Target: 2,4-dienoyl-CoA reductase [(3E)-enoyl-CoA-producing]
Amino acid sequence: MVNTLDAAFISKGPWKSNLFQGKVVFVTGGGGTICRVQTEALVLLGAKAAIIGRSESNTITVAEEISKLAEPGAVLPIPKIDVRDYKQLEQAVAQTVKTFGRIDYVIAGAAGNFIADVAHLSPNAFKSVVDIDLLGSFNTVKACLPELLKSKGSVLFVSATLHYYGVPFQAHVGAAKAGVDALSNALAVELGPLGIRCNCIAPGPIENTEGMRRLAPGDFKTRAAEAVPLQRLGTTKDIADVTVFLFSPAASFVNGTITAVDGGAWHVGATFTRDMYPKRLVESIKSKF
Ligand code: COA
Model:
């Protein structure tokens, strides 16, 4: 994987080049496509970033690649951290503060996903995804809270749109992301009086992402684009721009929101499972018994 943004993000975009100078972002899931481009954008605009990941090699490689967009030392990889383990996150926060001195922004983006119907979803499989997405998001914000209180910082949860309606093969993810939205709303209310904003970004079908590779096999891309009201798939730059807005002073009165970045796609339903529903779903469930 390579960086998807470059200097043109600043020269051709609406953002001031030093918008996030002096700021530090703590990112879980920074090895995945969505959180990675969010980090690229913030780093291009002057922030320092700590990338927290489970995989040693991927976390280090991604950090090295993103650091090419900025001055040396702007990106700190913190590998071998599982967001399900609160103590590990506390260590990651301590390492970030030791290196960069502060945390201003948090992207809680670590997530797990695979396609499985209820018959093929073990209790542990369901729990794994809920734990990574929901408990992991809670752990991330809780571990960063002392620093966020000092910086009057801002949190961005990475959610989805598939729990706005019933999406087959995604019960585990829908349940987890509904919880993430609820967590964000509650923390926006609890932490708002302390000067901390909490919001969610909910990406829809974004091309060239791990999510699309996992969830959308075959010639899905063309059909998915046709089903999006704006008649195209999203780009990682779409995610980057909304992320920058939500952390920027332009969003200083934006708190407790969920921003779908999906071209309006969720309003027209679960396009990616249309071919699999209901015939293949029913066959799959029956095959287990
Ligand atoms: N279908 C059904 N069950 C699955 C599955 C699949 N495709 N993949 C994993 N599982 C089950 C496992 O069988 C296991 O359940 P069991 O103990 O009852 O057998 C459970 O999920 C946990 O799997 P494990 O590999 O031990 O967990 P993990 O914590 O190492 O991995 C996952 C978590 C399963 C979410 C894994 O897919 C992952 O690490 N994903 C990270 C990256 C990612 O998904 N990104 C998505 C971005 S959209």
Notes: The beta strands are 24-28, 48-52, 75-78, 105-108, 154-158, 197-203, 258-261.
